[in-house]
């Protein structure tokens, strides 16, 4: 792929990881439960993905869905997950924590970065829940995060594009601003041109029908809003290639 940009694809399976690399992804964000915005994946998933791909794999460290205000026990879990993932080939981490009043939890984040060292760490879309994005960005720079993933504190990167542009200008290369959230083939060019970003984050997924022949339509394995049991969402090689081509032509 070209040297002027980097495409990160978030994946939750070995199949998606392999497809993302084949399509031209430069880095993976590995997680589970994408319908909750991504949670910490299993160690087994990390180990097999690392065996199957050559590009860097950043591991999501998020113990549950919901907000980013963590209890002492949740912090213990996050620290242990980082230790285990680090010892089994993680190339970086994706995490974030906030205080109850919507600020970056600087003290906790410094502990996370110390535990991650020397691996790079991305502050994830907890950033989109902060009270003041400009203040939060300066805090992330001072703490030592390598990048921040953001939709511009809006429902998607397209809607948050004006703020993403301001953050990119504010960052002045001190930290990478990576747009993510609702990025598609239809809006990627506009987001890259409008933001000045050199990295972007996408899932590039398509639905694939289950291979199951017998199906019980009366039972679901989760809440009513979860994905149907007989439809699987995986990273689509053709979609990843399309994103790659758009970015090459834009940057």
From TrEMBL:
Listed GO MF terms = copper ion binding
The record's GO CC annotations read:
cytoplasm; nucleus
Chief localisation class: cytoplasm
Localization in the cell = Cytoplasm; Nucleus
Show the PANTHER family listed in the entry.
Answer: COPPER HOMEOSTASIS PROTEIN CUTC (PTHR12598), COPPER HOMEOSTASIS PROTEIN CUTC HOMOLOG (PTHR12598:SF0)
What assembly does the database describe for this protein?
Answer: Homotetramer.
The name this protein carries in UniProt is: Copper homeostasis protein cutC homolog
UniProt source species:
Hippocampus comes (Tiger tail seahorse)
């Amino acid at each position: 792929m070209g040297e002027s940009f980097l495409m990160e694809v978030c994946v939750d399976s070995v199949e998606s990881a392999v497809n993302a690399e084949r399509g031209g992804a430069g880095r993976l964000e590995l997680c589970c439960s994408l319908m909750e915005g991504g949670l910490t994946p299993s160690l087994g998933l990390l180990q097999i993905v690392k065996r199957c791909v050559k590009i860097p794999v950043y591991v999501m460290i998020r113990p549950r869905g919901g907000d980013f205000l963590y209890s002492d026990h949740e912090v213990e879990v996050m620290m242990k997950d980082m230790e285990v993932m680090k010892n089994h080939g993680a190339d970086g981490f994706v995490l974030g924590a906030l205080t109850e009043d919507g600020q970056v939890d600087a003290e906790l984040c410094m502990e996370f970065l110390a535990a991650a060292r020397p691996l790079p760490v991305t502050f994830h879309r907890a950033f989109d829940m902060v009270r003041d994005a400009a203040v939060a960005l300066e805090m992330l720079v001072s703490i030592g995060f390598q990048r921040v993933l953001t939709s511009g504190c809006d429902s998607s990167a397209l809607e948050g594009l004006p703020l993403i542009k301001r953050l990119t200008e504010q960052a002045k290369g001190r930290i990478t601003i990576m747009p993510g959230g609702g990025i598609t083939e239809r809006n990627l060019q506009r987001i890259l041109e409008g933001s000045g970003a050199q990295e972007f984050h996408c899932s590039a997924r398509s639905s694939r029908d289950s291979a199951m022949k017998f199906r019980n339509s009366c039972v679901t394995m989760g809440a009513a809003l979860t994905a149907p049991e007989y439809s699987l969402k995986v990273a689509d090689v053709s979609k990843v290639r399309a994103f790659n081509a758009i970015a090459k032509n834009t940057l």
